[in-house]
Each structure stands twice: as structure tokens, then as C-alpha cells.
Amino acid sequence: MSLQDETALVLFSGGQDSTVCLAWALSRFSRVETVGFAYGQRHAVELQVRPRIRMQMGALDPGWGARLGSDHLIPLDALGAVSETALTRDVAIEVAEDGLPTTFVPGRNLVFLTFAGALAYRRGARHLVAGMCETDYSGYPDCRDDTVKAMQLALNLGMQRRFVVHTPLMWIDKAQTFALAEELGGAPFVDLLLEETHTCYVGDRSVRHRWGYGCGTCPACRLRAEGFSQWMSARQC
Asked: What structural domains does the chain harbor?
């Protein structure tokens, strides 16, 4: 893969998907910075694993380490304050009356992309990389491809810059995400994903499953477990 002589900013939460997106960006761009958001999330443990993942990814591949730039953490407490959701309150994780999961934080990805765009403007980064996925997006309307394309247009018009929003996971499922991780960084990177990333909605890191840490019952854990199982089965065929 040829590297573009440009800077990318990865929306990096510390979860599995954003970590794979970080590896994807490090394999393509000459400089890669990361941004995370503290919005009062119930699973704030994801913020604690971010520095460790970055450090280990840099050590895993010297090329990645050379291209990995600054990390930024943006406080967005206001988003959590206006969100009565299962990711920001002690609320049951279920499907609400409107058909959306209670883990849906209204406007979250729109806010994330807006702040990422503002940061990218200041840092001279033209590329934004995010882990939105329409294939198994758990019912989140702000993960849809149409939403992301609309946000790219809004950022370009509103900031008069030619940003490109990349979503390398948009059309693949969790099994294919594991396969992409293996393609990007081999078995060592997959091991890092399983051991260090955090995706569980309730923030449980007390149990290490074959597919990683988590409660094992929330939608994020179920998706990850099913994807890992399907990926392992495909590899054995």
C-alpha cells in the first residue's frame, strides 16, 4: 500500500473498531493523529485504555510508530448532560418505544465529526477516519453512510476545506473487521485488539473472554463475540 504524504485524524475511542481504523490509517498516511471524546460515557474505561493501545501499536510496527503523531482528548460534558441514554445514565440497555436502542446518544457522531473537523482544520489534517459501520450498526442513524456523507459536505462548506471522511468499516461486519485487522497487522495486532481494546457498553473489564473483555450480554459484546466466532470458523475452513 502506498502512503499518501498527508495527515489523517482518527476518531479513536479505544474500542475495537476505532483501533482497526487507526491501523488502517497508519498503513496509508504519512502522519496520523488521534482524537477521543469524554462525554460522560458510562463505559469511560475506554478512555483509560487509549494511551496503552497507542503505545503498543507504535511498538508493534516501527512504521506505525514513526507515523503516529499527537493524541487529543476533547471534553464534551454537555453532550452527556443532555442525553438520557444507557451510555450516559444507569438506564436499561434495550430497544425504546421509538425503535432505537437506548444506547443511542442523539447527535453524538454529528458532534464528534464537527469537533474532529475543527481540530483537523487547526492541525492541517485533510483526512478524518472514523469507525461508523452500517452493516451492524445496532440501529444508530448517525452511523449510516448517508449521514457521514452529509457531514462531510457540511464540514467542507462550513470550514471551506476539502476534508475527506473515511469509514473503512462501513460495509463490513465484525467478522470481516477481525479479518481486516489480521491483514493489517497480523496475529500480534489481533492479540492486541483482544487484550487491550474495550467495546462493552457497561464498561466491564472483569472477565476476559476469547473475543476480549466485556460483560458478554450487552449488544456490543454480543456483536463482538459473534464476529469473532464467525471469523475463527472462516479461518478454519
From this structure: 4-174 (3.40.50.620)
